[in-house]
Design a protein that fits this description.
alpha/beta
Protein backbone atom coordinates (compact mmCIF):
# COMPACT_ATOMS: atom_id res chain seq x y z
CA UNK A 1 0.00 0.00 0.00
CA UNK A 2 2.94 2.34 0.62
CA UNK A 3 3.99 1.88 -2.99
CA UNK A 4 0.46 2.74 -4.13
CA UNK A 5 0.34 5.86 -1.96
CA UNK A 6 3.68 7.00 -3.31
CA UNK A 7 2.53 6.57 -6.90
CA UNK A 8 -0.69 8.45 -6.29
CA UNK A 9 1.16 11.28 -4.54
CA UNK A 10 3.69 11.71 -7.34
CA UNK A 11 1.24 11.29 -10.22
CA UNK A 12 -1.41 13.69 -8.99
CA UNK A 13 -4.12 11.15 -9.84
CA UNK A 14 -7.52 11.89 -8.36
CA UNK A 15 -9.86 9.94 -10.63
CA UNK A 16 -11.18 6.73 -9.03
CA UNK A 17 -10.73 4.66 -12.19
CA UNK A 18 -7.11 5.77 -12.46
CA UNK A 19 -6.50 4.85 -8.83
CA UNK A 20 -8.03 1.44 -9.47
CA UNK A 21 -5.79 0.86 -12.48
CA UNK A 22 -2.77 1.93 -10.46
CA UNK A 23 -3.75 -0.43 -7.63
CA UNK A 24 -4.06 -3.26 -10.16
CA UNK A 25 -0.57 -2.55 -11.48
CA UNK A 26 0.94 -2.51 -7.97
CA UNK A 27 -0.72 -5.81 -7.04
CA UNK A 28 0.38 -7.54 -10.25
CA UNK A 29 3.94 -6.37 -9.66
CA UNK A 30 3.79 -7.77 -6.11
CA UNK A 31 2.92 -11.19 -7.57
CA UNK A 32 6.16 -11.30 -9.58
CA UNK A 33 4.64 -11.83 -13.06
CA UNK A 34 8.08 -12.64 -14.50
CA UNK A 35 8.52 -15.80 -12.42
CA UNK A 36 8.53 -19.15 -14.22
CA UNK A 37 5.26 -20.91 -13.37
CA UNK A 38 5.26 -23.95 -15.62
CA UNK A 39 5.34 -27.35 -13.91
CA UNK A 40 8.56 -29.19 -14.76
CA UNK A 41 7.08 -32.47 -15.97
CA UNK A 42 9.24 -33.42 -18.96
CA UNK A 43 11.65 -36.39 -18.91
CA UNK A 44 15.38 -35.69 -18.91
CA UNK A 45 18.61 -37.68 -18.88
CA UNK A 46 16.66 -40.84 -19.69
CA UNK A 47 14.56 -40.51 -16.53
CA UNK A 48 10.98 -39.35 -15.98
CA UNK A 49 10.28 -36.05 -14.30
CA UNK A 50 9.36 -36.62 -10.65
CA UNK A 51 6.77 -34.44 -8.93
CA UNK A 52 6.02 -34.76 -5.21
CA UNK A 53 2.62 -33.40 -4.16
CA UNK A 54 2.53 -32.45 -0.47
CA UNK A 55 0.13 -30.78 1.95
CA UNK A 56 -2.11 -31.43 4.93
CA UNK A 57 -5.34 -33.41 4.86
CA UNK A 58 -8.35 -31.64 3.42
CA UNK A 59 -6.54 -29.30 1.04
CA UNK A 60 -7.41 -31.29 -2.08
CA UNK A 61 -3.95 -32.83 -2.48
CA UNK A 62 -4.97 -36.18 -3.96
CA UNK A 63 -7.54 -34.57 -6.23
CA UNK A 64 -4.91 -32.10 -7.42
CA UNK A 65 -2.56 -35.01 -8.23
CA UNK A 66 -5.28 -36.63 -10.32
CA UNK A 67 -6.18 -33.40 -12.10
CA UNK A 68 -2.54 -32.70 -12.92
CA UNK A 69 -2.24 -36.21 -14.36
CA UNK A 70 -5.28 -35.49 -16.51
CA UNK A 71 -3.68 -32.31 -17.87
CA UNK A 72 -0.41 -34.06 -18.67
CA UNK A 73 -2.04 -37.09 -20.31
CA UNK A 74 -4.20 -34.78 -22.42
CA UNK A 75 -0.93 -33.18 -23.54
CA UNK A 76 0.24 -36.55 -24.82
CA UNK A 77 2.49 -37.51 -21.93
CA UNK A 78 2.75 -40.90 -20.27
CA UNK A 79 2.15 -40.46 -16.56
CA UNK A 80 2.53 -42.85 -13.63
CA UNK A 81 0.95 -42.13 -10.24
CA UNK A 82 2.43 -43.13 -6.90
CA UNK A 83 -0.03 -43.60 -4.02
CA UNK A 84 2.38 -42.89 -1.15
CA UNK A 85 -0.40 -41.80 1.23
CA UNK A 86 -0.48 -45.27 2.75
CA UNK A 87 -2.09 -44.22 6.03
CA UNK A 88 -5.43 -43.46 4.37
CA UNK A 89 -6.80 -46.25 2.19
CA UNK A 90 -9.30 -43.88 0.62
CA UNK A 91 -6.45 -41.80 -0.80
CA UNK A 92 -4.99 -44.75 -2.70
CA UNK A 93 -8.44 -45.76 -3.93
CA UNK A 94 -9.12 -42.20 -5.05
CA UNK A 95 -5.84 -42.02 -6.93
CA UNK A 96 -6.52 -45.40 -8.57
CA UNK A 97 -9.87 -44.03 -9.77
CA UNK A 98 -8.11 -41.02 -11.28
CA UNK A 99 -5.55 -43.29 -12.97
CA UNK A 100 -8.31 -45.34 -14.56
CA UNK A 101 -10.19 -42.21 -15.61
CA UNK A 102 -7.22 -40.53 -17.33
CA UNK A 103 -5.57 -43.65 -18.75
CA UNK A 104 -2.62 -43.82 -16.41
CA UNK A 105 -1.04 -46.38 -14.09
CA UNK A 106 -0.98 -46.24 -10.30
CA UNK A 107 1.56 -47.86 -7.99
CA UNK A 108 0.27 -48.51 -4.50
CA UNK A 109 1.25 -50.53 -1.45
CA UNK A 110 -0.66 -52.18 1.35
CA UNK A 111 -2.35 -49.95 3.88
CA UNK A 112 0.18 -48.71 6.43
CA UNK A 113 3.17 -49.58 4.22
CA UNK A 114 6.30 -47.42 4.28
CA UNK A 115 5.45 -44.36 2.13
CA UNK A 116 9.07 -43.97 1.03
CA UNK A 117 9.07 -47.55 -0.24
CA UNK A 118 5.92 -46.94 -2.30
CA UNK A 119 7.38 -43.73 -3.71
CA UNK A 120 10.60 -45.56 -4.57
CA UNK A 121 8.67 -48.32 -6.38
CA UNK A 122 6.64 -45.75 -8.28
CA UNK A 123 9.75 -44.01 -9.59
CA UNK A 124 11.41 -47.34 -10.39
CA UNK A 125 8.41 -48.44 -12.43
CA UNK A 126 8.27 -45.03 -14.06
CA UNK A 127 11.85 -45.50 -15.24
CA UNK A 128 11.17 -49.06 -16.44
CA UNK A 129 8.04 -48.02 -18.33
CA UNK A 130 9.83 -44.99 -19.79
CA UNK A 131 7.15 -42.69 -18.42
CA UNK A 132 7.38 -38.97 -19.00
CA UNK A 133 6.41 -38.08 -15.44
CA UNK A 134 5.82 -39.72 -12.06
CA UNK A 135 3.44 -37.90 -9.73
CA UNK A 136 3.74 -38.98 -6.10
CA UNK A 137 0.82 -38.24 -3.78
CA UNK A 138 2.24 -38.10 -0.25
CA UNK A 139 0.44 -38.48 3.05
CA UNK A 140 -1.56 -35.49 4.27
CA UNK A 141 0.65 -34.94 7.23
CA UNK A 142 -0.24 -32.52 9.97
CA UNK A 143 2.49 -29.89 9.88
CA UNK A 144 2.70 -29.99 13.68
CA UNK A 145 3.75 -33.65 13.76
CA UNK A 146 7.55 -33.51 13.70
CA UNK A 147 8.04 -37.24 13.18
CA UNK A 148 5.70 -37.35 10.24
CA UNK A 149 7.37 -34.34 8.65
CA UNK A 150 10.70 -36.11 9.01
CA UNK A 151 9.14 -39.04 7.19
CA UNK A 152 8.18 -36.75 4.32
CA UNK A 153 11.82 -35.70 4.09
CA UNK A 154 12.70 -39.40 3.96
CA UNK A 155 10.37 -39.91 0.99
CA UNK A 156 12.23 -37.23 -0.95
CA UNK A 157 15.65 -38.61 -0.04
CA UNK A 158 14.71 -42.16 -1.03
CA UNK A 159 13.23 -41.07 -4.35
CA UNK A 160 16.40 -39.11 -5.15
CA UNK A 161 18.42 -42.32 -5.01
CA UNK A 162 16.94 -43.07 -8.44
CA UNK A 163 15.96 -39.78 -10.00
CA UNK A 164 16.01 -36.06 -9.37
CA UNK A 165 12.88 -34.59 -7.81
CA UNK A 166 11.92 -31.89 -10.30
CA UNK A 167 9.00 -30.36 -8.41
CA UNK A 168 7.65 -30.29 -4.88
CA UNK A 169 4.17 -28.81 -5.16
CA UNK A 170 2.59 -27.68 -1.91
CA UNK A 171 -1.21 -27.76 -2.02
CA UNK A 172 -2.83 -25.05 0.13
CA UNK A 173 -6.50 -24.39 0.80
CA UNK A 174 -7.04 -20.74 -0.20
CA UNK A 175 -9.60 -20.33 2.58
CA UNK A 176 -7.24 -21.18 5.47
CA UNK A 177 -5.59 -17.75 5.70
CA UNK A 178 -2.76 -17.43 8.22
CA UNK A 179 -2.75 -21.15 9.00
CA UNK A 180 -1.91 -21.83 5.37
CA UNK A 181 1.14 -19.62 5.70
CA UNK A 182 2.28 -21.59 8.74
CA UNK A 183 1.92 -24.81 6.74
CA UNK A 184 3.90 -23.34 3.87
CA UNK A 185 6.81 -22.39 6.15
CA UNK A 186 7.11 -25.84 7.71
CA UNK A 187 6.76 -27.84 4.49
CA UNK A 188 9.31 -25.60 2.78
CA UNK A 189 11.85 -26.27 5.53
CA UNK A 190 11.42 -30.03 5.12
CA UNK A 191 11.27 -30.58 1.36
CA UNK A 192 12.27 -27.38 -0.46
CA UNK A 193 8.91 -26.48 -1.99
CA UNK A 194 9.25 -25.34 -5.62
CA UNK A 195 5.68 -24.23 -6.28
CA UNK A 196 2.28 -23.67 -4.69
CA UNK A 197 -1.10 -24.99 -5.77
CA UNK A 198 -4.00 -22.96 -4.37
CA UNK A 199 -7.27 -24.87 -4.15
CA UNK A 200 -10.84 -23.82 -3.38
CA UNK A 201 -10.62 -20.48 -5.15
CA UNK A 202 -14.19 -21.10 -6.29
CA UNK A 203 -15.47 -20.08 -2.84
CA UNK A 204 -15.88 -16.64 -1.31
CA UNK A 205 -12.23 -16.38 -0.27
CA UNK A 206 -10.08 -14.64 -2.85
CA UNK A 207 -6.82 -16.28 -1.88
CA UNK A 208 -4.99 -13.15 -0.76
CA UNK A 209 -2.57 -15.48 1.05
CA UNK A 210 -0.75 -15.83 -2.27
CA UNK A 211 1.02 -12.50 -1.71
CA UNK A 212 2.41 -13.57 1.68
CA UNK A 213 3.35 -17.08 0.56
CA UNK A 214 5.23 -15.92 -2.50
CA UNK A 215 7.01 -13.15 -0.60
CA UNK A 216 8.04 -15.36 2.33
CA UNK A 217 8.98 -18.56 0.46
CA UNK A 218 10.27 -16.97 -2.70
CA UNK A 219 8.48 -19.56 -4.85
CA UNK A 220 5.58 -19.01 -7.24
CA UNK A 221 1.98 -20.08 -7.16
CA UNK A 222 1.90 -22.32 -10.22
CA UNK A 223 -1.61 -23.77 -10.31
CA UNK A 224 -5.05 -22.93 -8.95
CA UNK A 225 -8.08 -25.13 -8.34
CA UNK A 226 -11.21 -23.32 -9.47
CA UNK A 227 -13.87 -25.94 -8.77
CA UNK A 228 -14.67 -29.60 -8.22
CA UNK A 229 -14.69 -30.67 -11.88
CA UNK A 230 -11.92 -32.81 -13.41
CA UNK A 231 -10.77 -29.92 -15.61
CA UNK A 232 -10.86 -27.24 -12.90
CA UNK A 233 -7.10 -26.96 -12.51
CA UNK A 234 -5.55 -23.97 -14.24
CA UNK A 235 -2.20 -22.16 -14.50
CA UNK A 236 -1.93 -19.22 -12.13
CA UNK A 237 -1.99 -15.91 -14.00
CA UNK A 238 -1.20 -12.83 -11.85
CA UNK A 239 -3.17 -10.43 -14.05
CA UNK A 240 -6.33 -12.55 -14.06
CA UNK A 241 -5.98 -13.16 -10.32
CA UNK A 242 -5.78 -9.44 -9.53
CA UNK A 243 -8.76 -8.67 -11.75
CA UNK A 244 -10.82 -11.26 -9.84
CA UNK A 245 -9.53 -9.87 -6.54
CA UNK A 246 -10.72 -6.35 -7.39
CA UNK A 247 -14.10 -7.36 -8.83
Amino acid sequence: MEKLRARIATSGVRDADQVRRMLSEVLVEALQPGWERSVRALPHSGRPAVVLVVGVNGTGKTTTTGKLARVLVADGRQVLLGAADTFRAAAADQLATWAERVGSVVVRGREGADPASVAYDAVRQGIEREADAVLVDTAGRLHTKTGLMDELGKVKRVVEKQAEVDEVLLVLDATTGQNGLVQARVFSEVVDVTGIVLTKLDGTAKGGIVFQVQRELGVPVKLVGLGEGPDDLAPFEPGAFVRALLD
